[in-house]
Design brief:
The protein has helices at about 1-25, 60-70, 85-95, 95-100, 145-150, 200-215, 235-245, 245-250, 255-280, 320, 345-355, 370-375, 440-455, 475-480, 515-530; strands spanning about 30-35, 70-75, 75-80, 120, 125-130, 155-160, 175, 220-225, 290-295, 325-330, 335-340, 340-345, 385-390, 400-405, 410-415, 420-425, 460-465. The protein is an alpha/beta fold. The chain has a domain at about 25-380: Alkaline Phosphatase, subunit A (3-Layer(aba) Sandwich), CATH 3.40.720. The radius of gyration is 24 Å and the shape is globular. Bound molecules: calcium ion. Calcium ion binds near residues 36, 84, 229, 296 and 297. Belongs to the sulfatase family. Its cofactor is Ca(2+). It comes from Pontiella desulfatans.
Length: about 525
């Protein structure tokens, strides 16, 4: 009897132990927070350790900062594209913009058939451009699809902007529907207590999380904020903190407005992120939940004299694609940092990996699981992998593609004769084109880019039979002047109207004043004629 009692106790103890092991082994949850148009330096966290220019003085983001403090900050994180739709599509399917063919804005919501027309978007330009797809291809599996296969409950709240019938047609159990910018804009977002739908999407997310915990199901929730995309909104009391600040008030009017409205919207968003993390604590699941924070693309916002990235949203310069990123969760050491290159199309394989999926079995995916980096393990191979970015369109930009490998970045501006090469380690501001100094590196990277485009049958610009001799070719030094000179350590005040041409770029095709005038007149004439 005594023995029996003892063995019963042992069994009970063993099952308790097994129970706790089972709980520890249960699939981790994932909360993916994607914000809109936040620059690399858009939080109070320095993305690059010790580099003041990688944070923003006017941002109050204690909760976003906590994700980095309790986990890892990625200094070299990239969005898959320089704008919303293409970046979001790439995130959902784990592919580059070249492979999804949703590489630019336009044709939103049209069926993605891969039947492409080439158009003369800019009259007389040397190359025609392929019209971008404006929707996720129906055959592509999304993050929702692959996580569902792993037994996850899946939800997407907030801005979708990837079309394809909306999240619930593409692998998600719950969502806010096929939303885009409009739902977060002033016409449709009118509740003053819910600026940019920050708090309602947070309530939906918390409600979803609570239900999954109650039913003991692992979950994936993507919280896609409309902030800080243009048309900022915030709680009046939050905005007052910034508009009433004497230092901001003293700024030039338009700058003061930008600084205050964006900072207020971001602070409200940060508050909502704090609500989600508090709920994870209350539910006792923080230790088994990954929280990931990033932005869908960069943005050229004012950051005092420390604004250091070249270019802007839409472009593939660092200002368009370098984004903030941090991640916390099981196995990630608090306060850790990584300088390895990671990109938006890594999220699908990363989350699939977390969910217990075999990443090697994913088909046609360009990304890789970044969990080895996050867990500080074997990162062999990460240093030399190539990231690809593709923008064969004209929208505020010229047609261009980029390959980033280790700390080198090569641009192919299709209408210029030679590629441009930058060493991001020494020159994050992309000031000095070093292509002339490293011809072998240029050749090797250009070949790798061309081979990738060939392998995936990328849509490249095609020669325009009506190319005009008077067409003004893109000149980076004039169109996208660098904003700083890190070599001297001096950071000149941002002035978009005056582009200081760096010497190494001055050899590019220069036009005479007369030629430029003539081309300007032709453009004006075309515009008038509605071409
Ligand atoms: Ca965006």
């Amino acid at each position: 009897m005594k023995t029996h009692k003892k063995s019963t106790l042992l069994v009970a103890a063993a099952s308790l132990l097994l129970g706790s092991v089972a709980a520890a082994n249960s699939k981790p949850n994932i909360v993916f927070i994607l914000v809109d148009d936040m620059p690399w330096y858009g939080t109070a966290t320095m993305q690059e350790e010790g580099f003041g220019g990688s944070a923003m003085k006017w941002r109050n983001t204690p909760n976003i900062d906590t994700i980095g403090k309790e986990g890892m900050v990625f200094a070299n994180a990239y969005s898959a594209a320089g704008m919303c739709g293409p970046s979001r599509c790439s995130i959902q399917v784990g592919m580059t913009a070249a492979r999804t063919r949703y590489s630019g804005n336009g044709n939103f919501g049209d069926d993605c058939t891969f039947e492409v027309s080439y158009i003369e978007k800019v009259k007389g330009a040397p190359f025609l451009e392929p019209e971008p797809m404006g929707s996720i291809h129906p055959d592509f599996k999304t993050m929702g699809d692959v996580l569902r296969e792993q037994g996850y409950a899946t939800a997407h709240f907030g801005k979708w902007h990837a079309y394809g019938g909306g999240p619930e047609a593409r692998g998600y159990d719950e969502s806010d529907g096929e939303t885009s910018n409009a739902e977060g804009g002033p016409q449709l977002c009118t509740d003053p207590k819910d600026p940019k739908r920050i708090f309602s999407m947070t309530r939906s997310s918390i409600n979803f999380i609570e239900r999954q915990v109650a039913s003991d199901k692992p979950f994936f929730v993507q919280i896609s904020h409309y902030a800080e995309h243009n048309q900022q909104m915030s709680l009046p009391e939050t905005l007052k903190k910034y508009t009433g600040n004497p230092e901001i008030k003293a700024m030039e009017k338009s700058v003061a407005r930008e600084v205050a409205t964006h900072a207020a919207a971001v602070e409200d968003m940060d508050t909502s992120i704090g609500m989600v993390m508090k709920k994870l604590d209350e539910l006792g699941i923080s230790d088994n939940t990954y929280v990931v924070f990033t932005s869908d693309n960069g943005k050229g916002l004012y950051n005092g004299k420390d604004r250091i990235l070249r270019g802007e949203k839409w472009w593939l310069w660092e200002g368009g694609i370098r984004v903030p990123m941090s991640m916390k969760g099981p196995g990630i050491s608090a306060g850790s940092r990584s300088c390895l290159n990671v990109v938006g199309y890594d999220f699908l394989p990363t989350f699939y990996d977390i969910a217990g999926g075999d990443v090697a079995r994913l088909e046609n995916v360009d990304g890789v699981s970044i969990m080895p980096i996050a867990k500080g393990g074997n990162v062999k191979g990460f240093k030399d992998r190539a990231l690809f970015f593709h923008y064969p369109h004209h929208r505020n930009t010229t047609q261009h593609s980029v390959i980033i490998k280790d700390h080198y970045k090569l641009f192919n501006f299709y209408e210029l004769p030679e590629p441009y090469l930058y060493d991001l380690k020494k020159d994050i501001g992309e000031v000095s084109n070093i292509a002339g100094q490293m011809p072998e590196k240029v050749q090797q990277m250009k070949s790798e880019m061309d081979a990738y485009h060939k392998r995936i049958d990328a849509l490249l610009p095609k020669p325009n039979p009506n190319a005009s001799e008077n067409y003004v070719r893109f000149d980076p030094a004039v169109k996208v002047p660098p904003v700083c000179d890190l070599v001297d350590g001096k950071l000149p005040k941002l002035d978009k109207s005056k582009g200081q041409a760096p010497e190494e770029n001055q050899s590019q095709e220069k036009m005479s004043k007369e030629e430029k005038k003539k081309a300007r007149e032709e453009r004006r004439k075309n515009k008038k004629a509605g071409v």
